[in-house]
Predict the structure.
Amino acid sequence: MFMYSVRRLITAVFILFGASFLIYNLVAIAGDPLEELRISQSPNRDALIAQRTALLDLDTPAPLRYFKWVGGILGCFAGKCDFGSNLAGTPVTQLLSNAILQTLTLVVASTILAILIGISLGIVSALRQYSGLDYTITFLSFLFFSLPSFWIAVLLKEFLAIGFNNFLRNPTVTIPTTLIIAALAGLFWYSASFGKQKTRYLMGVLGFVLTAGLIIFVSATEWLSNPFLGIPFLLPLGVIAALLFTVLVSGMRNRRALGAGLTMVVVGLAIYFPIQGLLNQATFLMVVLIAVAMMLVGWVAGLLWGGYDKGQGARVGMLSGLAMALLIIVDRFMQAWPEYVNNSRIKGRPIPTANASTPNLQGDFWILSTDTLTHILLPTVALTLISLAAYSRYSRASMLEIMNQDYIRTARAKGVSERTVVMKHAFRNALIPLATIIAMDIGSIIGGAAITERIFAFKGMGTLFLDSLAHTDPNPVMGVFLVTGIMALVFNLVADLLYSALDPRVRVKA
Amino acid sequence: MSTKNTNGSVSADKEPTTETTALRSIETNVDIRAQESVGKTQGQIVRKRFFQNTGAVASVFVIIAILLLALTSIGVGPIPGWWGYNHTEMQPVLNGGAPNATHWFGQDATGRDLFAMTMRGTQNTVLVVLLITSIAAMLGVLFGGLAGYYRGWVEAVIMRFTDMVIIIPLILLTAVLGKLAGSYFTGIWNTLMFGIVVGLLFWSSLARLVRAEFLTLREREFVDAARLAGASDMRIIFKHILPNAIGVVTVNVSLMMSSAILTETALSYLGFGIKAPDWSLGSIISANQAAFATRPWLFWFPGLFILTLSLAINFVGDGLRDAFDPRQKKFNPKKATERTAHSAENGVGIDGFAAPATAGLVRVDTSIAAEVDRPESSRTSDSINQDLDPQNPNDDKRPPQG
């Protein structure tokens, strides 16, 4: 394994050299950085040309210049990175570090969401193969997969952002709209449910009633302009989360696991009031620590409940603890929401259509975080829609293949409960091929979602690349290539190692 | 557990034992399977399976319709079409440019006819996509085939080169190429060169797949036979192995096409592709997106054309994949209903998969029937085919694909 990794890394270095050489020369012949100066009328034109030639070392032919450039990069190992500078003279290292940060804030959430939603949809549609739900999910996957990102992004801006902002002025839903939405939700629940026909009708009706009730509640209390969770919502949501995790992880039969989950709900409710004071002066680190602490407490609670399979209880406790922590944090965000919306910089239109943050916004952690969240909302939705399609297709195909295996039939034949068959025998094995795909995708996210970034005016890697390319500015372009190339190679290796770790049938050749 | 349990009310005397139900379901499936493929060439089977796929066939017609519309309406090159306007001349703006009887898709701010622009954009987009995919398909097959067939240093060199291309996000790489084409060529030559240079580096993923396919096929007996008969390497590659890998190539080229559509329109949108005064579907959107609030049609029509083309090609690709993959049987609702009716008479359930219905709950099954159809539920209709393949003599003639 170690030798394999070393060998792969050495190959990777050569691939990287080759790729960067190729790109460097392509970029060099793609455009002349001096062109805009040559046609300019400025009196000191010749001086500017000479200055830029010196800056970019244009007198050296591109293939040779590449080696000088590589020399600067290799300086990183000697502690002095030199990626060159852009036309304005800013070092590329500085541009890159800003851009990477922006790109990560943009893509991390959408990648996680796309993976979670995509895989769940794929699994559900595989389990309900050839049902109405399956066809719907399949069609939607194809639709999202075929959507041009620049088109959907503009649509989202227009309808989601501007529409929602307009809606917020008078956030009430009319009765017919309520009924239509609730009917759609009921239909969804009917097709998503399973079991006897009667149960399915019941689920459909329940979905209809709950959705209608929710919309009426939201409308009546003007929840959208003044959202809250508080104890009345934390309790049922926490219990639902605990039940869900118990069903998924261990099955309802494991009462101790359920106990661990419910314990965490109680713990979450107990600390709700004491923790508010602490949260008022929160930092990002503190929020993360609170979530981690809750997970740890859940782990311990699961172990304390004990029983035959402590691990399951611990996992349920951990997940429920995380859910409670997230609920409390969401609740705190909601408390900050009215203040954010009424801020003089926001003026009651909270969903922005561009940029990464509102300029000159003053406020505490919660206000600023809310601002970031509202800014990444639209690009996240766009990116999630586009990339979840691939995940749902992959996981559906993978799950279908697994469900047809003999060992699944064996498991069923020996009387293993359906939950265990799906979650333990099938799901885990279906994830193996997905793990490598996910690893590769994570490797490529740093390259940024060039188009989405451009449309939403995020100054990330994609924008840096496209702008520099448009201005024939070679060094930042190469910087972006280098970073994305390194990430892709590293995560390709990770994917291969992960695959052999997950699937004992696959062995890497040492 | 059984969702649409049509046989729930089957009387007790018809209750089959596990063995008979299993046997029956095997028999039915063998029959269907044999009927489908007996005495037919592989091409016929694939064609039949493809034509059974309503979505894919409909998509083929949609693509043809769009192409015909784009080609006949504004004509090609010097040949005029039946549409009265072209994509450059400015007409007086009627009715604020909204779609009307004279200008079906409306007009832009300067009075250009959007229908003509969209048709011109469709022509250009399709032209570029065809260039990209045909070049990429040829190179991908060539490189993948050589690497897979020769192994050794040929493979090492080609695959390392493939790795070099594949580690760079496609949109970034193609943006550089588009810029390259744009800075040396103008007009129609820009469009052509754009397609060609992007095609020159678009082949990497196909090459990988073709190589993998060749790696398995080169070990087969028919390759040995051909070699013993004295066939040259090129003949073996192109006449013996390639026809057997045609499934992988066709499917992936069609999927490559849909990705090429999105890449081309995105690059033109970003300004690295086809440039004004000529139009691509992407550049029409980019030129008009600021006017969404006032002239939404400028944005809707080209976008819908991109979406329709890309969606239709994806459906065709998926249909081809199903048709070429001998392990997957395309689901035919009509046949399934017949089979359900047939098997319901015999007391066989047809559920597809038993869903996690009783997830975690203690199951209290009172009837034996419920116990019996549980193992069946996972292997009716589709799933069983793959287990039955060896029983079907025709299957031996099929190459392993997918």
User: Anything to note?
Assistant: Chain B touches chain A through 67 residues (CB under 8 Å). Residues 1-17, 25-31, 330-334, 340-402 of chain B have pLDDT under 50 and may be disordered.
